[in-house]
What we know:
This protein is of the alpha+beta class. It has one domain: Alpha-D-Glucose-1,6-Bisphosphate, Chain A, domain 4 (2-Layer Sandwich). Helices cover 20% and strands 47% of the residues. Strands 1-7-6-5-4-3-2 form a seven-stranded antiparallel β-sheet, covered by helices on one side. The longest helix is centred in the last third of the chain and has 20 residues, at 122-141.
Amino acid sequence: MANYNATIEVPTSPQAAFEYLANLANTVEWDPGITEATRLDDGPIGRGSRFRLVVAFFGKRIPLEYELVSVVPVEELVFVADEKKVHSRDVIRFASSGSGTRITYEASLSLRGPMKLLNKGLNPVFKSIGDKAIAGLKKKLG
């Protein structure tokens, strides 16, 4: 399993940052590793909302279906993709910081099946992917 953890500060309000990141379809705007992102359901975004992301990973395009499994308004979002070949969990926390927001992003990724042999060496690659995504998020919300 690979883990990633980063904290950034942005001038965006906690409410605006929370609403933007709750819509996982926005990921394509700031994460260069995401080639497509769409919402799979309708209505207000909340627990149970589903999103389809296509991730560029090891030269392949991997579709993942994420579900928003936990929501604490303006404090925390938890997204999970539980696929045959991949399990991913993203936890995003929000806290007021001066006139903006401190965002803490924690992600874990575990490969399954024949690809699980790659799990041991996955951390450096996952860190590089995460660093690029966090830089994009900081730029987008900054």
